[in-house]
Amino acid sequence: MGEMINANGAEFWVERRGQGPDVLLIAGLGDPAEVWQAQLDGLSDRYRITAFDNRGAGRTPLPEGPLSVPGMADDAAALLRALDIPAAHIAGFSGGSLIAQELALGHPGLVRSLVLMSTWARSDAYLRTMTGFWHWMAERAPSERAMLDAFYLWVYTPRAHADGTVEGFIEETLAFPHPQSTEAFQRQLEAFRTHDTLDRLAQITAPTLVLAGELDRAAPPRLGRVVAEGIPGARFEVLPGEAHQPFQEVPDVFNARVDAFWREVEARG
């Protein structure tokens, strides 16, 4: 069970599981903490896992005014401090990976290491056009199911569409009692599509692992490679046959990879 935590002037829904070195998981566009269920279940025997709802997702309210990635990074930092976590391994995917970048830049002492899944440093023309389409699609789709049917084409592999995995995710999303509003989706999206750390990545000092899905249409490997090349000492790996969210589609593979990375960082002290 989770709880509401006051941090940075807002109430955030937080779920925590397990014991061991601290890990903070940061979700992407529209996703509540539950998106990390396979990590909350699969890694909590070795780590103390914390996941939370970003502003405007799940049970965390949408504030007045625009959202920004640095502001959401400040939220994550405030949550760590409110939970008395001096430093944590940070893992973020998609929009959450952008928040993780800003967290490492603005609050380096809180970041033990970084895992950036499906990430980018600056939107290119393809990403800007794609996210522009998502913005008006959220308003004009004839139903929530139709919106999810279209949106998930960019998120999951053809395999997951064929074997019923995507249909299961759609049913779970439609049944979730805290759906995201169109306004919240669009405001989060605007923050993520204007993200730009390209000229600041060299300032990141935390050990970093950048992961990309070979078949990812939303954040293809070419964007992740730029991030890895910009962060001193970062590793870059492409997951063959995977798309935007392998931590959901192949959680055992993802969990084993990040566990190995975190164990290596811990061993180095």
What features would you describe in this structure?
The chain has one domain: Alpha/Beta hydrolase fold, catalytic domain (Rossmann fold), CATH 3.40.50.1820. Helix content is 43%, strand content 17%. The protein is built from 11 helices and 8 strands. An 8-stranded mixed sheet has the order 1-2-4-3-5-6-7-8, sandwiched between helices. α2 crosses α3 and α4 packs antiparallel against α8. The longest helix is centred in the last third of the chain and has 17 residues. The mean pLDDT is 97.
* Helix-strand category: alpha/beta
Termini separation: 32 Å
Q: Tell me the total number of β-strands.
A: 8
What is the architecture at the second tier of CATH?
3-Layer(aba) Sandwich
The description of the largest β-sheet is: 8 strands, mixed
Can you give the helix content as a percent range? 40-55%
Might you state the CATH topology name? Rossmann fold
**Strand-residue fraction?**
15-25%
Task: Flag low-confidence runs.
Answer: none
Radius of gyration: 17 Å
Please give the CATH class.
Alpha Beta
Question: How would you sum up the global shape?
Answer: globular
**How many separate helices?**
11
Mean pLDDT: 97
User: Looking across the biggest beta sheet, what order are the strands in?
Assistant: 1-2-4-3-5-6-7-8
